[in-house]
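Write out the 3D structure for:
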Amino acid sequence: MKLTLDLACASKSEWLDTVINDFDAFLQDHADCERKASSMAMSFVAKYPNRVEIIPLLIDTAVEELEHFQQVYALMEKRGVQLPHKIGSDPYVSALIKCCRTGRDERFLDRLLLASVVETRGAERFRLVAEALEDEELKAFYKQLWTSEAKHGHIFVKMALEYFEKDLVYERLAYFVEREAEVLDGLALRPALH
């Protein structure tokens, strides 16, 4: 069974140009995204400790995202790029969170599916970056991340299917795929993952 829906739109070539032209800033944002992704997975564990069926998957995901942060930081060190002093707000994720419902179970489902869509977009963008880079080490790194993020997109849908009916999961997933395309279309270009 397919665990995700296709994204409703592709990233624009202008986004990729913006990233490649300021790759050090992209690395800083990428590092922030990996830290946030690890924290987000662990926040599910903290907020929903009774959802024992998915806790091992959440922990594995959090550890993997933290390892990605470690790898990005190593690349930054090689290039003499420092971490930003402050983790900035992500306008993309902030806009998508506003689409989440507020009831406990509804929010749980929506946040899982939001995570799936964000990870799927990350996979698409890491593929584009990998294909555009000339440096072989960076190219290999982003190719590996592309497959990892795609897997994470599937994992969050799998988690949702543990607790909610398939039709509801895919109806809400379709909703988030559509909202994500709208949000992405309205964002200013910047050297950032989202």
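Residues 104-132 form the longest helix (29 residues).
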